[in-house]
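Hi again,

Forgot to attach this to my earlier email, sorry! This is the prediction with zinc ion bound. I've pasted everything inline since the attachment limit keeps bouncing my files.
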Amino acid sequence: MRPTLLTHPACLDHLTGIDHPERPARLAACLRGAATAGLVPDTTSPPAIRADLLRVHDAGYVDRLLALAGAHGALDDETLLTPGSVAAALQAAGIALDGARRLMAGQARQVLALVRPPGHHAERARGLGFCLVNHIALAAAEARRLGAQRVAIVDIDAHFGNGTQAIHGADPRVLLIDLHEDDLFPPGGSLADRGVDAGEGFTLNLPLLGAADRDYRALLAGLIEPALARYRPQMVLISLGFDAHQADPLASLRLSTRGFGELVGGIAEATRQHGGDRLLLLLEGGYDLAALEASTAAVARALQHPPALPAVEPGVAAVYARRVAAALAALDAGLAREEP
Ligand SMILES: [Zn+2]
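Structure tokens for the complex follow:
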């Protein structure tokens, strides 16, 4: 079964300004990449409505946001709204919901959702960092509502997914694995940050410095695969940020185009084995147009033909061994607490 590509032209109507990094050309580049890998866009997903957003956002924030439909506004210095922005965010949220529904209904095994604005920084009561609505949090909530006992979100965007953690960090039924650049926007996401209350142990943050393909390969084998094998989610969702690419102007991580294919191909394989064979990938950041196009093509190909992964280098694995062991021990403790 070929991956389903969901997108919509309304996502191009969020016009942030010619000098803003989160611009429509990003999505166009991703769509070109997906097309070269043979994916055909499906634009039939309905937009989300107010009641949908209330599943993960406060009513006050949702109403403030909806009041800005068709208008100019700003949620912070860099999160700007123009007349098409709210419609774009509702469409992106609707695509995330539709992706989760198609996977739960067995109509697809892999859904690649190419949308903008991005979403993983949006918290319950505020949008920030280019994000208006937290689409991945919404998709996870929808999967849960439709019967998935547990879901896992793997956030590979270079930035810490603060919003997703703020929304789901207390929920043991949502496992969060977040690989991000240390000390980049926004604050938080430290190794010691492992979720709160009943969710303690179900948030695995791993801040990185200058990580390249070999580092991600070690973390795929050492952290992501073992965590999914222990947790056994019924759906895996990927916050697909391409700003961990070595060419990205906003971050300093060093994944190559091939590295993105290997990483996502590896997560897809782990999803087949341990994740209910349901995978939803949602576009988050990534700001170099050539890297976006090539990496999207690499990811779309990897979903169809999982690439052979080079062996993990023992020296690289050793660098992460202590941190990975601590994160998995926290997950084990959380799982032991969950047992009746
Ligand atoms: Zn990012």
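The mean pLDDT is 97. The beta strands are 4-6, 41-42, 73-76, 79-81, 110-113, 151-155, 174-181, 203-208, 235-240, 279-283.

That should be everything now.

G.
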